[in-house]
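Section 5: illustrative case.
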């Protein structure tokens, strides 16, 4: 079998191969054009005219695939059967005499009476060349062409050298997608992220003796990772680039230039619309925010990295002060003394060293993702709601309401794009940004060498990173009425920041001591990746990847249909509209949530978000749904035992020892699964053993919670090492990991598990009631619900509804 070498190098320099059958399907237009002789045009006034076969211009170079047009160029139609290419085909030959009077015969792809496709020899001299086409009948046609050192040209899916290029994208160098849909329309391409780049492989011709080759995409110049022969098709060149992750949405131009010559312009469609809301941060805003933060850092004599993101997580700029630490260390540390509070564990992330900019971006993204028009939270707020007790350090209290949320928005997620390099952060130093009263993004500061949590929330510590972040928000502060410290959860006031505003107007940006990270240049807010939509009379927003709803393609006889998924989503969002939000101002506001439905295998069948649903819940709702579907699946235990060489078998064994079967006999909600994932069992009761899916309190930390962390730990370590990954876990059902706080229920049809619905937004009890409302008609039989199971004498929970839930 012939193998096409795409030379799609990953960070380790590997070469990805694709079978000829798959490449033929993806490059069909190219092969037909070269081998079957699609009519590229009509002959001009000269007896024979030669053009570049990709761009249809006169620009050609050594090694270029060329197309000649004329009359009586062959006595019959014939194409080459393979390599090496013949210099005579169907009795036709193409004789070239170059500027040095050297004669050569061109290798031929295809001949017909009106067209001949041939290869310009690589050894031909630059300058003017005489072309003579001779047929088997003895007739000749002559013309001229000019050979340049380089004539870059890109093949397209239309026969005019314009439009969508013949190109492939890949996240991992192993699986490839064309940039067109099956109907020939441009596919919306995910631009990826710096920590999970998406690669583009272009196909063209005419690179010849190219030097200083660059690719311009949407106005951004890129140096290719690889540019040269494709290796399996004569004259075909290949260019591999990393797609810029900070490009806006919509259609953008792509041009290749080399040795002062530009290729034909082609177009790519990137995810998201092409316009930016007026409330988005401008480039000048980003410079001002960074300048204010750096100015305060200088006053404190602290060297930091500053990151700014927009509301949906696109990085708008990273600035590194001269001498700022390049890395930081993950784990539970005393931030005042630097003492390590928890030991290293093979399933956790304690002591993992990461780039400082990743920590700053995750802090900024946390503040942005948690904040809405009804609440403004910080990374300190996040720290407060993810620990083993709520409030932290208060014994005999249940775990934080968003226990485990830190392992969402991961760089390997297939749901949230863009995502965050370290997931959500609990390290103080991430503060939201509002523009004209509208949530617009976040700022994150990293500089103390620790990426930790606020262990003791009662000491009102003054974090230098937070002081600097707050200073950066001058003029972009969150409205006072919706700050986290104005919101109560279960009667407990949440923290916002411990630092008053101490910023001052920024100095000129070009006077700041440091540099902008070249991977994250200063830019304005990106276009939203969501569009407005309505469902059941409720206005919201959707990502076209997951809406409208679709039916399951599961092979099971019982499966969800498109109509049923739409009904589940509709019932859930209608319940949200009449449910009182828990963590939103003003009081009495309806809950704003993200609702996801998945099938039995974890495939997303639909996601709908209400208009002001928190961004973090988009990823979390899918995690919750997948978790409920997976743990209720008859294959759950077997899949865990088989993954990563049996690494997770200990959690299955621990559950079995507690009488918890993972064979489909129990319908697990996320509240039930989360209850088994706490370091104390029952939840919050000190001096008890950990749940079977958790770690003992001696090694437990928000960076080592048990099965949830273990499932994603390998992928995160590979990502931090610069290696590509295709999913967050080794289990296909759990591509973006699991979630372990409440808000999902499994779905059954005629007594058979068919999927799950997950909800994430304005309070976990609210999430439960909204998920339950969506499941009406698809509920688990009461006899198999998790609340019929006792573990160590304790009844497991299933769902919990808020008191007086409706408005």
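Designed sequence:
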């Amino acid at each position: 079998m012939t193998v096409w070498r795409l030379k799609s190098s990953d960070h380790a320099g590997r070469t990805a191969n694709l079978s000829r059958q798959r490449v033929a399907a993806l490059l069909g237009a190219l092969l037909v054009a070269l081998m079957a002789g699609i009519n590229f045009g009509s002959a001009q006034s000269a007896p024979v005219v030669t053009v570049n076969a990709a761009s249809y211009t006169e620009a050609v170079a050594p090694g270029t695939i060329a197309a000649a047009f004329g009359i009586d160029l062959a006595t019959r139609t014939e194409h080459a059967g393979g390599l090496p290419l013949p210099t005579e085909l169907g009795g036709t030959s193409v004789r070239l005499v170059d500027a040095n009077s050297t004669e050569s015969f061109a290798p031929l792809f295809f001949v017909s009476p009106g067209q001949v496709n041939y290869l310009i020899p690589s050894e031909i001299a630059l300058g003017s060349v005489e072309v003579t086409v001779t047929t088997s009948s003895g007739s000749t046609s002559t013309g001229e062409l000019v050979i340049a050192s380089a004539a870059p040209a890109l093949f397209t899916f239309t026969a005019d050298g314009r439009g969508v290029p013949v190109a492939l994208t890949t996240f991992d160098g192993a699986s490839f997608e064309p940039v067109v849909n099956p109907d020939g329309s441009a596919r919306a391409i995910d631009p990826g992220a710096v920590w999970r780049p998406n690669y583009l492989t272009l196909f063209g011709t005419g690179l010849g003796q190219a030097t200083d080759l660059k690719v311009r995409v949407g106005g951004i110049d890129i140096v290719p990772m690889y540019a040269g022969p494709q290796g399996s098709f004569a004259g075909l060149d290949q260019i591999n680039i990393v797609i810029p992750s900070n490009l806006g949405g919509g259609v953008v131009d792509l041009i290749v230039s080399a040795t002062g010559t530009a290729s034909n312009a082609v177009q790519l469609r990137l995810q998201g619309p092409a316009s930016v809301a007026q409330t988005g941060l401008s480039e000048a805003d980003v410079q001002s925010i960074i300048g204010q933060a750096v100015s305060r850092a200088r006053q404190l004599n602290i060297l930091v990295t500053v990151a700014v993101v927009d509301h949906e997580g696109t990085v708008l700029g990273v600035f590194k002060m001269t001498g700022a630490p390049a890395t930081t260390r993950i784990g539970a540390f005393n931030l005042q003394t630097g003492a390590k509070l928890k030991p290293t564990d093979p399933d956790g992330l304690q002591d993992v060293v990461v780039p400082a900019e990743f920590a700053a971006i995750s802090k900024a993204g946390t503040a942005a993702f948690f904040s809405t028009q009804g609440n403004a939270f910080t990374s300190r707020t996040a720290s407060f709601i993810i620990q083993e007790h709520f409030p932290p350090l208060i014994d005999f209290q249940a775990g934080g309401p968003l226990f485990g949320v830190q392992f969402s928005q991961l760089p390997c997620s297939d749901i949230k794009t863009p995502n965050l390099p370290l997931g959500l952060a609990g390290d103080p130093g991430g503060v939201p940004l509002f523009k004209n009263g509208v949530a617009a993004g976040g700022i994150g500061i990293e500089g103390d060498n620790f990426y930790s949590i606020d262990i003791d929330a009662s000491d009102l510590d003054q974090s230098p990173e937070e002081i600097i972040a707050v200073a950066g928000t001058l003029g972009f502060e969150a409205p006072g009425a919706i700050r986290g410290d104005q919101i109560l959860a279960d009667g407990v006031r949440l923290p916002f920041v411990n630092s008053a505003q101490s910023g001052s107007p920024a100095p000129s940006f070009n006077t700041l001591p440091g540099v902008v990270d070249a991977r994250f240049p200063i830019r304005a807010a990106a276009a939203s990746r969501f569009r407005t939509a309505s469902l059941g009379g409720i206005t919201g927003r959707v990502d076209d990847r997951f809406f409208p709803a679709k039916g399951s393609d599961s092979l099971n006889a019982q499966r969800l249909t498109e109509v049923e998924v739409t009904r589940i989503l509709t019932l859930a969002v209608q319940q949200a509209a009449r449910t009182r939000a828990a963590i939103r101002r003003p009081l009495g506001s309806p809950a704003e949530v993200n609702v996801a439905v998945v099938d039995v295998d974890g495939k997303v069948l639909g996601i709908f978000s209400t208009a002001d649903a928190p961004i973090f819940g988009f990823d979390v709702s899918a995690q919750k749904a997948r978790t409920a579907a997976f743990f209720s699946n008859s294959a759950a235990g077997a899949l865990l035992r088989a993954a990563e060489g049996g690494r997770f078998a200990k959690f299955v064994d621990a559950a079995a020892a507690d009488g918890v079967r993972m064979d489909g006999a129990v319908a697990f909600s996320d509240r039930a699964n989360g209850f088994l994932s706490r370091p104390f069992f029952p939840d919050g009761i000190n001096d008890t053993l950990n749940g079977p899916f958790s770690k003992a309190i001696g090694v437990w930390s928000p960076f080592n919670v048990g099965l949830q962390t273990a499932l994603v730990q390998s992928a995160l370590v590979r990502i931090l090492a610069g290696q590509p990954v295709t999913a967050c876990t080794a289990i296909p059902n759990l591509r973006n990991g699991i979630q372990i706080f409440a808000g999902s229920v499994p779905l059954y049809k005629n007594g058979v598990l068919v999927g799950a619905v997950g909800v994430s937004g304005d309070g976990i009890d609210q999430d439960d009631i909204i998920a339950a409302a969506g499941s009406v008609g698809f509920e688990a039989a009461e006899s198999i619900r998790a609340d019929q199971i006792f573990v160590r004498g304790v009844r497991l929970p299933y769902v919990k509804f808020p008191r007086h839930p409706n408005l």
